[in-house]
Amino acid sequence: MLWALSVPMQASVNEVANEPDSVFLFSYADREGNSGLKFAWSPDGKSWFSVADGYEYVKSDFGPWGRAKKMFRPQLMQSRTDGGWCCIWTLSEKGEALGCASSADLLKWGRQSYFPVSERGKHLPADIVPATEGKAVIGGREEYGWMQRAPYATIEQLIRYAEHKKFRQIQNDERMEQDVVRFAGLKPVEATIRVQTSQAKPISEHLIGIFFEDINYSADGGLYAELVQNRDFEYSSRDGSHQGWDNGYAWSVQGDNATLSIATDRPIHANNPHYAVFDLKQPGAALQNDGFDGISLKKGEKYDFSFFARVADGSKGGKMSVRLLDQEGREVAQAMVNVSSKEWKKQKAVLTANADVRAAVLALQPQVAGTYHLDMVSLFPRNTFRGHENGLRADLAQTLADLKPRFVRFPGGCVAHGDGVDNIYDWKGSIGPLEARKPLRNLWGYHQTRGLGYFEYFRFCEDIGAEPVPVLAAGVPCQNSGTCSHHATGELGCNGQQGGIPMEEMGAYVQDILDLIEYANGDARKTVWGKKRAEAGHPKPFNLKYIGIGNEDLITDVFEERFTMIYRAVKEKYPEITVIGTVGPFYEGTDYDEGWELATRLGVPMVDEHYYVAPGWMIHNQDYYDGYDRTKPKVYLGEYAAHLPGRPSNIETALAEALYLTTVERNGDVVSMTSYAPLLAKENHTQWTPDLIYFNNTEVKPTVDYYTQQMFGQNAGSEYVASTVSLSNTQDAVRKRIGVSVVKDEITGDYIVKLVNLLPVEVAAKVKLDDVALVNPSAVKTVLAGNPKDKEAKSVSSVFEVAGNEFPYAMPAYSFTVIRIHQNEPQ
Ligand code: AHR
Q1: Looking at ligand 1, which atom is closest to the CA of residue 412?
Q2: Residue 585 Cβ < 6 Å to ligand 1
Q3: For all residues of the chain together, what is the average pLDDT?
Q4: Average pLDDT of 598-606?
Q5: Ligand 1, atom 4: nearest CA belongs to which residue?
Q6: Which pLDDT score is estimated for 6?
Q7: 3-state secondary structure of 128
Q8: By percentage, how much of the chain surpasses pLDDT 70?
Q9: Is 802 touching ligand 1 by the criterion CB < 6 Å?
Q10: Is residue 453 lining ligand 1, measured as CB closer than 6 Å?
């Protein structure tokens, strides 16, 4: 039945002749649950007009990513008392649980909460304006929803808001491929850049860092140099969506009269319960491991082999050959060990490769029949980064070091807060002897040995002179968790996001966080965790200064309670540590607003912002930080990247990021740190693109975006120097595509001029450094340039002559240039 209700009109002043004071407002969502809250309006309750073409004003945030987030049967209610709005919807078709959010104006919505149907009454606003449930035909489709009277001005406001969002979307969608039309006939632009060296402000010295997360096989099979896959026989079908993953994955028996099985009695350690049982009726067969897409070997290089082994009762054991074989089965390296102990015993051997091999295998071949128990079978190149045992792959680690990052964030991202509370990254399980570490299901769909754990992370930071920035869950798992949490039941329990560690377990969780700080900084003899660090080989503290709590979480009551508890505990025990809070996954919206409000209220010193955006967003939001309140928390832009359709990394994304980073440098007094994400991706094992660096077993392939990061990282400053830019063409579209930032490196005294040109024409710049008389004529220029779709461009450095403190420079079309100007020593 369609409505034709008679509801008393609300009095309001009609400002435009022939427009109604009040109309019918209909609120609804798609019947399939796939949309957010939409509106239609009607002058008479019979014919309905969609508001802003079905724009969705609030979406449910409950459940895993994307279409799993459903909104069914939203009921919109207005409070008579304060005019505020509240929307309650069911989370699934079954309707066992509800979601709820409030808004003062129907445009901005507050935090969401989720609860069982039985608690509905608690969430209703007091004194509700009457509304009626029913149907309305909107655009030819019959919809179910709620109808009430509203001033026509409310409809206008809704429309204006959606139009503004659509306008912003059009800006975001601007691409360089449209430049032929956008800039048809554009002549080269002239720019006069005056650098006012007397006007400088201090900026963060930690602006460019990196964020290492085990995504895309970044750790096992990537930065972690271990060459044996599933060395601990702990792979399992629960690790991900992979077909055939089990404890024997990557292992096979070659030859006859032998079997491989998995056992769990008397393991090396309870955290590592499975091991291989290799049963050999007569010598000949070998147990073979394929590595991660094969084991890559370099001629003449040494490889450290080790394993834990014992013989079963009734077997006497004997010699076992350890061999590396190339694709044709030819032996490339060989060593012999002896396995005869009845108890677990660690054996070691060194193998030297006699050839380069792209994809070798490791073969273990007992020389005596019997039953052998094997675990923690490991092979490392001797040549790890800085030569550490259990170290990092040298070429990849060096590529990271070359960025000159001032900090390293770890371990996530989503890996930090995990898929459901039982998957939260427990740092204690990632330290200590390798055989005692707790492997963890990686929420990106694979297995983490955590051989690259907190100790190796802190050591890497120290090696490259970067501050560690560990990020720990705020007692809640990933807001997109798809797994059941261990404490909640029913529909709510089957979404980890709602979980949150039960409050009765939070005390222990908070202690774990405090223990991490002690592990990093505590006295090697007087503290429990400092001692453990010393036992691992590092008596000196790691000098931890920052700790992130939470990762783009939904800011709910569940979150607030836990975050506050952790924050207060850290602040009380370690006031010197800078705690970094979290403000959601976007540059605006509910979590952003609520996160900022909470952090400001609590006095959190810094917050972690995330946004993956189109290049167009970066062009049109260069003033994003200009208006930030300097009295509020500082900003760590912890995850960002320019995303184009198809997700390439090319000149277009790299230059958009460079342009945006010039504005971040300008705001380096409020933005303290930034890190592009994700950092690493192994070819053919990638869950997320784009990434900063791709690699396979033998090659490292930095993207164009890598060079942007490197040019900023290697040319950071401690002071931002004011400059003015005058252009011969003052069109907005032109002006917004030229970026300038000048910083001074206090240590060297160098002035560093960064010039970004996103135009298809050259910009002939004249750079004038005011008040500097002693310029050294020999500067260094580094240029990254190419056509927008170019994925292979690299930065090129050369000497650049600057004649005095005023010099010309032609910024090539589509380019980013850094000019590093040294100052002469005064005579
Ligand atoms: O960087 C990849 C992922 O993006 C991170 O794990 C997560 O925090 C974000 O959603």
Answers
A1: 6
A2: yes
A3: 94
A4: 98
A5: 413
A6: 36
A7: strand
A8: 96
A9: no
A10: no
- Separation of 170 CA from ligand 1 center, angstroms? 25
Strand runs labelled E in 411-568: 440-442, 446-448, 467-472, 546-549
Residue 414 CA to ligand 1 centre (angstroms)? 5
How many whole angstroms from 688 Cα to the centroid of ligand 1? 9
- Where exactly are the structural domains of the chain? 22-172, 182-203+718-823, 210-217+390-713, 237-383
Regarding the beta carbon of 213 and ligand 1, being less than 6 Å apart is answered: yes
pLDDT tens digits, residue range 101-127?
999 999 999 999 999 999 999 988 889
Give the mean pLDDT of 86-92: 95
Q: Atom 5 of ligand 1 has which residue's CA nearest to it?
A: 413
Is the distance from the beta carbon of residue 551 to the nearest atom of ligand 1 less than 6 Å? yes
Residue 772 scores a pLDDT above 90: no
Classified as helix, coil or strand, 96 is coil
Hey, which CATH number is domain 237-383, 3.90.850.10, 2.60.120.260, 3.40.50.970, 3.30.360.10?
2.60.120.260
**Across the beta sheet with 113-116, what order do the strands follow?**
72-78, 85-90, 97-103, 113-116
- Neighbour-count burial for 536-571, b at 16+ CB within 10 Å, e otherwise: bebeebbebbbbbbbbbbbbbebbbebbbbbbebbb
3-state secondary structure of 360: strand
Report the distance separating Cα 373 and Cα 346, nearest Å: 12
Residue scoring higher pLDDT (259 or 826): 259
pLDDT single digits (tens) 421-460: 999 999 999 999 999 999 999 999 999 999 999 999 999 9
Contacts of 712 (CB under 8 A, 6+ apart): 207, 208, 658, 661, 665, 754
pLDDT single digits (tens) 182-208:
999 999 999 999 999 999 999 999 999
CB of 412 shorter than 6 A to ligand 1? yes
Question: Is 182-203+718-823's fold the same as 210-217+390-713's?
Answer: no
Catalytic site positions: 552
Ligand 1 contacts CB of residue 587 (under 6 A)? no
Question: Of all helices (H) and strands (E), which one includes residue 601?
Answer: helix 590-602
Ligand 1 pocket test: pick from 478, 688, 705 the residue with the most ligand atoms within 8 Å of its Cβ.
688
Q: Residue 340 pLDDT > 80, yes or no?
A: yes
Domain spanning 182-203+718-823, CATH architecture:
Sandwich (2.60)
The secondary structure of 289-332 as a DSSP string is E-BTTBEEE-TT-EEEEEEEEEE-TT---EEEEEEEE-TTS-EE
Q: Taking the CA atoms of the chain, what radius of gyration do you get in angstroms?
A: 30
Predicted pLDDT of residue 291: 98
Alpha-carbon separation of residue 597 from 110, 497, 594, 626, 813 (angstroms) = 11, 21, 5, 19, 42
pLDDT tens-digit map of 229-275: 999 999 998 887 777 899 999 999 999 999 999 999 999 999 999 99
pTM value? Answer: 0.95
Identify the weakest region by mean pLDDT among 42-51, 492-501, 682-691. 492-501
User: To which CATH superfamily is domain 210-217+390-713 assigned?
Assistant: Glycosidases (3.20.20.80)
Q: Measured in angstroms, how far is the CA atom of residue 681 from the centroid of ligand 1?
A: 13
Q: How far is the CA of 637 from the centre of ligand 1 (A)?
A: 13
pLDDT at 803: 81
